[in-house]
Specification:
By secondary structure, this protein is an all-alpha fold. It has a domain of 76 residues. Helices cover 67% and strands 0% of the residues.
């Protein structure tokens, strides 16, 4: 079970980084290397859980401003990217919420099985 959860987490992380990279490409932020994208997204993920903001708003913006400024991108581009990061996070929350109906925490039942 632990291996399955670890593999699922790695697959999820891969797709998250890939989607974030696609956001950078969609906003034509191509001067930023992939390793910087992965690094800043990991940093944002850690900073978002700190109780210093609501849903990471402000923290995510500041991190992206600090990373994109040396590459010559504008504040508006960083804020647009930050808003899209937030939308991705909200999508992950929604999908996780829906999946939690089939796999409730603390349950060892099969998916969709109703216990009496």
């Amino acid at each position: 079970m632990l291996i399955a959860v670890a593999v699922a987490s790695l697959i999820s992380a891969f797709f998250t980084f890939w989607r974030l990279w696609l956001l950078f490409l969609a906003l034509n932020l191509t001067a930023v290397p992939l390793y910087v994208v992965v690094g800043v997204s990991a940093l944002i993920a850690v900073l978002q859980v700190l109780p210093i903001s609501i849903a990471g708003v402000g923290v995510r913006d500041a991190a992206l401003l600090a990373v994109l400024a040396p590459y010559g991108y504008t504040v508006e581009q960083a804020i647009a990217l930050s808003a899209l990061f937030l939308l991705l996070n909200l999508q992950h929350i929604l999908v996780g919420f829906i999946v939690s109906f089939w796999y409730p925490l603390g349950s060892r039942d099969e998916p969709g099985e109703v216990t009496g």
